[in-house]
Design a protein that fits this description.
Chains A, B, C, D: Pathway: Amino-acid biosynthesis; ergothioneine biosynthesis. The structure is a homotetramer. The first copy, chain A, is α+β, with helices and mostly antiparallel strands. The first copy, chain A, has helices at about 1-15, 35-55, 65-70, 95-110, 120-150, 210-220, 230-240, 280-285, 295-300, and strands at about 170-175, 175-180, 195-200, 205, 250, 255-260, 265, 330-340, 365, 385, 395, 400.
Amino acid sequence: MLEKYLYTRNLTLSIVEPLQIEDFGVQAMVDVSPPKWHLAHTTWFFEEFILLNNKPEYSPYFPYTRELFNSYYETLSKPFSRSKRGLISRPTVSEVLDYRQAVDEEVTNLLNNNDEVDEKVYSFIQLGIQHEQQHQELLMTDLKYNFSINPLKPIYKEMSGHSSLPRLKWYDFEGGMTTIGTNKKEFSFDNEQPEHQCFLYPYSIANRPVTNGEYLEFIEDKGYETPTLWLSDGWQTVTEQKWNAPLYWEYVDGNWHHFTLSGMKSIEKDQPVTHISFYEADAYARWAGARLPTEQEWENAFKNEAIEGTFLENMLFNEEDRSEKNVFGTVWEWTSSPYTRYPQSARPEGALGEYNQKFMSNQMVLRGGSCASPRNHIRLTYRNFFHPDKRWQFSGIRLAKEESAL
Amino acid sequence: MLEKYLYTRNLTLSIVEPLQIEDFGVQAMVDVSPPKWHLAHTTWFFEEFILLNNKPEYSPYFPYTRELFNSYYETLSKPFSRSKRGLISRPTVSEVLDYRQAVDEEVTNLLNNNDEVDEKVYSFIQLGIQHEQQHQELLMTDLKYNFSINPLKPIYKEMSGHSSLPRLKWYDFEGGMTTIGTNKKEFSFDNEQPEHQCFLYPYSIANRPVTNGEYLEFIEDKGYETPTLWLSDGWQTVTEQKWNAPLYWEYVDGNWHHFTLSGMKSIEKDQPVTHISFYEADAYARWAGARLPTEQEWENAFKNEAIEGTFLENMLFNEEDRSEKNVFGTVWEWTSSPYTRYPQSARPEGALGEYNQKFMSNQMVLRGGSCASPRNHIRLTYRNFFHPDKRWQFSGIRLAKEESAL
Amino acid sequence: MLEKYLYTRNLTLSIVEPLQIEDFGVQAMVDVSPPKWHLAHTTWFFEEFILLNNKPEYSPYFPYTRELFNSYYETLSKPFSRSKRGLISRPTVSEVLDYRQAVDEEVTNLLNNNDEVDEKVYSFIQLGIQHEQQHQELLMTDLKYNFSINPLKPIYKEMSGHSSLPRLKWYDFEGGMTTIGTNKKEFSFDNEQPEHQCFLYPYSIANRPVTNGEYLEFIEDKGYETPTLWLSDGWQTVTEQKWNAPLYWEYVDGNWHHFTLSGMKSIEKDQPVTHISFYEADAYARWAGARLPTEQEWENAFKNEAIEGTFLENMLFNEEDRSEKNVFGTVWEWTSSPYTRYPQSARPEGALGEYNQKFMSNQMVLRGGSCASPRNHIRLTYRNFFHPDKRWQFSGIRLAKEESAL
Amino acid sequence: MLEKYLYTRNLTLSIVEPLQIEDFGVQAMVDVSPPKWHLAHTTWFFEEFILLNNKPEYSPYFPYTRELFNSYYETLSKPFSRSKRGLISRPTVSEVLDYRQAVDEEVTNLLNNNDEVDEKVYSFIQLGIQHEQQHQELLMTDLKYNFSINPLKPIYKEMSGHSSLPRLKWYDFEGGMTTIGTNKKEFSFDNEQPEHQCFLYPYSIANRPVTNGEYLEFIEDKGYETPTLWLSDGWQTVTEQKWNAPLYWEYVDGNWHHFTLSGMKSIEKDQPVTHISFYEADAYARWAGARLPTEQEWENAFKNEAIEGTFLENMLFNEEDRSEKNVFGTVWEWTSSPYTRYPQSARPEGALGEYNQKFMSNQMVLRGGSCASPRNHIRLTYRNFFHPDKRWQFSGIRLAKEESAL
């Protein structure tokens, strides 16, 4: 457990290694947080749930931490205003790194001293690791957004590597009763529990995500100008935000380019389209004569797939290496399922009840992980969720159909 | 059919009978429409879908009607800005009533001339009737909102009548496979179709809606000040809107009152709480140690109930007459189900594809009809839907539980 | 005095004579008020300042009047929210007309009963008449705005008549000490008082306002796209509001038209440009190599001109009849003077202190009256004032220069 | 000239010396700019107006500089969005310091090489120095605002020193013709020119600014809750912004404190009140039975005063050392004069025409300099200007009266 803890904590540091101090404070829109805040908040999580609960003599490293680095746990304290996270120059980056180190030492001592460690501590450490993994993904996506609005178009890291998506095929499923969710001993979030039964009608699902080339056809067919392809709230968003392409795309000198963590690049037609909102995914599917899968259809379809693909550790944020069978990684896949409670599920007590369940309105489920997800963070039953207009995650489209395409 | 048509058209006129001309133009918030607009829009629906499609010689009564009184059918024309419906003094009320009469005459002629009427015309008349019934309900709820912001607190109609809700009990259901939705020959909306199978876990559901008295306990227990009771988006709404009670409630001289269509009245503790958002319904249920039912649980529970209760025709908007078995009417009941597509359902072609399906995001399903719903508009399978923060409908709460309360 | 009172009260009624009841309630933007509100507010003014102060037995006609029809006199009561004046359907138009009549009868009785009338009452009646004249102008300009947003483009009144503006000439003035403002026995507002000395440098002023034709040259020379012509706040307004022509102008089928109280009309090149903001007037003057006059320069230049021209009573809102010497009427003329206090001026006590002086920030002075000003309301020393971005008044441009154009 | 240039450039660096790198990027509201931006923008000014115009071989140090560090000169390029200055992490602080040094070397070479330097170059260097001095003041005030929103309340520098304001007295002036503005050979901005004649009525002016103690009486007398004391736009601001004290004041444990560049401090009653908007200054003056002076009255009153007092170089941002005669420094003094053009003044050509004159609407003149103004930047005729709701400058109140208080 200690090894896993330290591995995760160090992976976070390696993510921010290419940054300048100035990069740590930026919050370019309210949805993202500054890198420094991510570093501090993930540390606060261990301090709050492990150290303060288990070390009677421990007092917070920074006196103001409990407000400043609390994200949204109203049970614990009044969180500092989310929209102002980018305005807080102190504590400095160096002070936050010291904070990380001090908490790491305390946690290490705790874990090395077996007397103090009970099952509950282990389970919170486990949760804290999973929590930090989620923030590793957000660090990457937030950083990308922050860099994108700078006219210098800073480069996080030069990356190379390339492989093409296979030809589109459809996998058919008969439906009937199936098992969704998990009761396994291995870690899972409360929103994936419990394992439960669900009835499905026959359906087909695509063997791979939609490509940039396919999405370009939608754009060129005036997809963004055709209101009948869109959900009503989606069309309002398209109109207000003046969307005409995925986030980060720019039409320059007669060609589509997009901002990547390696700078501005040409669009590669055989790679998966990403930085797509649910509204765009839904409109594209309608245009393509298909639909998005429900999360149950998705989970049922890929029950036996290995968790293989392009993940955070590959540091390939714009490319991919995927055989036909790689259904995990590269891009999150929007489902048609609103994020709601599973039948029979229980709500954890205290602050942890706020972790997942209070977001169960107005958000849509995404499945499968992305190129920014840590590899061992992703599971078949993992449910990611975002509001339907959000585009700054590595989010893409997998098509489904009611009946076999054959 | 003609009889039903004329009955519906006249019922609409009887609703606006107590109004002054000045009342017809008001739009007190963007969600509501002025009564005059409702009168014109429901007429436009028949003109657009029946007369223009079936009478080659027919030209629109007002040349500008197709934009001005189109609500949201982008397929047909560019609808006039929704937020400005209250700023349009011309055509006058009297001109709009003439418009109604002219269209009614044309439709009557059409229906009396059997040669011209095929099945498709009948189905559009049917749809137009259902559509007008929906606007009858909106006329009542919009009117109530418009009046409520006037410091004179105008009275629509004096009403009386009173009866108490029964004691709270729980009905238990075993779950298993059940049939949801409808394929019946009788009219239903596309969003209720098709009949399909669904698997339910055991659950219990309350015999009646939550009362004002019960909801007051939630208020007095600081329900509106306790963030952990709320969904995250709901808590943000409570904070921004400074909600501390249902819409229309005012605390005056030490007692709660509410604005009704009969003016300001004291809160009656044994009547159902209404003008509640989904967020409030969800928070109340959590506080009460229960939850909201899914729409499938609701439909399964009340399969055999008669469609009896207090409806529009009763003109009792603040009271009710309900035996323990009256599950329909009085207040719509929020379910925990986001409004989504039923499996295997098809999307109607053309403008009708916009009628229901483009709203399938960010909205929640309500069931059972209200005191403002026309009686023969309501069905077991009927799905109403609103965004989770909306409160100006007659919307209330029915509780459910995972397991038997016994 | 009674005769003047009744004349003014009746003139107001004659203005609204062409309206439908539906027109009386509309407030198409926050700056305008519904006609019904103007009718009630001007009546409230007499009730509040004359009847309630001088008739001990008098109680308000409507109990809620003091809030609902108070505009901005915080000294008296909490005014009803300005932005919601268009949402108040009750009292009805007919009830407001009854209110007018009842107050008129009371005032008539008062004035006929000499015992009750002292100097102070006369001075308030005088003020109330001037106040109602101001609202007569607003009635016209607000009505025009309300009609303009209706796609039916309603016609208030067909008008005809036409005459051209003379050729541009410059009048030169030597400057030196001059007398500004007034101490005269005849009525004037506190903001025109007292008569005081002021030192002017030599200047020239145009013999007539800028024409539509001249303004078109500014548009065609990309005046609206050239930031260096504009004040900084003005350029921000142009950009945000997407201004590219005066208010009410529309480019249709290759020609500029504008909405008038007689409907949509072609632009007449030899008539004065109007519905211009201060920002546009200032930018036009800079483009033309001139500047706007100060209010002192304006007043000094036209000291000996007769108060002749096109006024409200002419009912010619789009045309004019002006010889070279008509400097009054037709369009208000923006000056370069911010609206501030005259030296040595006193602030009236009580609510009247709020009448003019609390608006002395962020507004610019206009001079000369317009086609919507009652003829005997306008004086040489009259100071009108609006925020620099406002365009719904009949406001135009008169140029000035530092030195003689000769 | 070179000496003065280098002195000014170094003074800027000494201001930011106590900062951490993280502090350089913060923009806590749209009115302020990040310290890094000030460092770069002042350098860009010399690069743009001196180097690019006079060194044919010179190309910009950063290719993107002309947009990124242009403030508002539309003549030159499209300035980068003002509200996003705090989101630009690159170039880094160190790169910006290198940029400063490179430009300083080029300017030094230019000035040392007499052949290249004509009168115009000297005048632009002179202007660039004055420009940088203005940004030195903004650096201090922006920094203070940035720190103030951080719950850690960072300390810029510990400061001490204290002295009391003298007893309030009135200086009387007879008025008559006076000379305002300047034609002097020494540097002045175009908005101070030309020297011109002006007629004044008799007035009195206070010997010192209003103190915290006096302002507290206004607060305690419900000044912030009394609408009749306020200008209309001011009252709207008070209501919307929920103002109840000057900016930075907090009521803690029964006493008023304020945030200073030395952290949170108790209010000292005998020091001048500061961080006051024009609206507050105007309301206070009305409450005190006085008024604000016009800028002409102010300038006429202090024609013979030495430019002595507390300035930037004193590094005493919360205290002061002022004899009765010190009218300059410590706090800017709001006048009742809107910022407008002086008679006979000319507009500089090209980009410099944008320097001052495009701000001549909606702003009020302040006089006298503050504790954050460089000492040799301030003149008798110096006109500072801000919108009337701005409070983050060191702005205070000096009272005037129409007539002698004797």
